[in-house]
Write a structure and sequence with these properties.
- One of its GO terms (molecular function) is pyridoxal phosphate binding.
- Belongs to the Orn/Lys/Arg decarboxylase class-II family. LysA subfamily.
- The active site is at residue 328.
- It is a single chain.
- With 401 residues, this protein is α/β, with parallel strands linked by helices.
- It has two domains: 22-264, TIM Barrel (Alpha-Beta Barrel), CATH 3.20.20.10; 269-387, Lyase, Ornithine Decarboxylase, Chain A, domain 1 (Beta Barrel).
- Helices cover 30% and strands 24% of the residues.
- It contains twelve helices and 18 strands.
- Helix 6 packs parallel to helix 7 (162-172).
């Protein structure tokens, strides 16, 4: 989205606000499909947790995507948005058997990542198809909080526990129709991903009735000009070749599945904020905006970098600013960042704000959550109203003292 479009949105809608570009989402989806065009049965399951608005889910449904869900509520959102149960895979972590059974009753694909629930579910529902999530003990990801395939991760069943998995399957007679892995987010080294894929292939050989192999996702997107990203085209060439070879060895057609979230929606999102105060201290110039980590927590949580532009003064002389929020706690978005000269009232645009931004927002400091706007066919559509005081107290129950 260009400056002019964003400026018009800033004038038309209350700020702060998240803005999503449907054209970019479609382009990223098609890029991934094209990278794996040699695969006859390719399934792209959008990871709902990245951005869970029903309008976004409906957009992916129109493209032919499925959904990757991690909670029963995300399953329900997907069904509400029109997805069919067979288009949804349920990949939770650490949930109760009852939540697994709720999802199974709704008819979605179950993906189990621990031995305890695998045995309990298999004993009670041996005929229900189950995918198994393995932990390949391969370290990938740009931050320890998003690296989920290493040996100390809580995610997945250790590859070293495969004999135990096989005993459970044999004893319960349960139907295993898929195997799954996810190494972590912000994958850069394709060879590391392909190494983990070999572990998945070796695991798959132990299960004769598979329908699909799920390779997770975690593809890195660029966060600033010149930033490195996962080479999807190279990954597509190398993994497709190996997958087709394995499919022949396995002896039956298989579906190759991915579950991208950030890759599909991150670059489509822009977060618009307005500058409240420009504050000069003895050593720093602060630009304080009408937001905080209640709206965008990723820089504080992950150390993530979001490129920031002053769309009110795009051609102004660049100066160094530390961009902070209005939360009564340290909420620094950027430190000593070169940005076109900022004045109070200017609109700042935070890029790569489509994934894990609004979905991780909160009412901390009793602040309202912002609006969400979808730019579709060249027109902005308000898809989430900014919250009000009524929203803040809606579920509170008063008592008399």
């Amino acid at each position: 989205m260009e400056n002019q479009q964003l400026q018009q949105i800033a004038e038309q809608f209350p700020l702060p606000a998240y803005v999503y570009d449907s054209e970019k989402i479609v382009a990223q989806y098609n890029r991934l499909r094209n990278a794996f065009s040699k695969i006859e049965h390719l399934r792209i399951n959008y990871a709902v947790k990245a951005l869970s608005h029903t309008a976004i889910i409906k957009l992916f449904k129109s493209l032919g995507a499925g959904l990757d869900t991690v909670s029963i509520q995300e399953v329900q959102l997907g069904l509400y948005a029109g997805m069919q149960p067979e288009q949804i895979i349920f990949t939770p972590n650490g949930v109760s058997l009852s939540e697994i059974e709720q999802a199974a009753a709704l008819g979605v694909q179950i993906n189990i990542d621990n031995l305890s629930i695998l045995e309990q579910f298999g004993a009670k529902h041996p005929q229900h198809p189950v995918c198994i999530r393995i932990n390949p003990h391969v370290m990938a990801g740009g931050n320890s909080n998003i690296s989920v395939g290493h040996i100390d991760s809580k995610f997945g069943i250790s590859i070293h526990q495969l004999p135990h998995v096989l005993r459970i399957v044999q004893n319960t007679g349960m139907h295993i129709n898929g195997v799954h892995m996810h190494t972590g987010s912000d994958i850069l080294d394709i060879e590391v991903f392909l190494y983990a894929a070999e572990i998945l292939f070796d695991t798959a050989k132990h299960f004769p009735n598979l329908d699909f192999l799920d390779f997770g996702s975690g593809f890195k997107v660029p966060y600033k000009k010149g930033d490195i990203e996962t080479d999807i085209e190279e990954l597509g060439r190398k993994l497709s070749k190996r997958f087709l070879q394995f499919q022949k060895e396995y002896g039956k057609p298989l579906t190759l599945a991915f579950e991208p979230g950030k890759f599909l929606v991150s670059e489509a999102g822009t977060f618009l904020t307005r500058v409240n105060v420009v504050k000069q201290t003895t050593s720093t110039v602060f630009a304080s905006v009408d937001s905080g980590f209640n709206h965008l927590i990723r820089p504080m949580l992950y150390g993530s970098q979001h490129h920031i532009r002053n769309i009110s003064n795009p051609k102004g002389k660049e100066r160094f600013y530390t961009v902070v929020g209005y939360i009564c706690e340290t909420d620094t978005f950027a430190t000593n960042r070169r940005i076109s000269e900022i004045h109070e009232g200017d609109v700042l645009a935070f890029h790569n704000a489509g994934a894990y931004c609004y979905s991780m927002s909160s009412n901390y400091n009793s602040r309202y959550k912002p609006a969400e706007i979808l730019m579709h066919n060249g027109q902005p559509h308000l898809i989430t109203k900014p919250e009000s005081f009524d929203d803040l107290i809606r579920n509170q129950i008063d008592i008399e003292f």
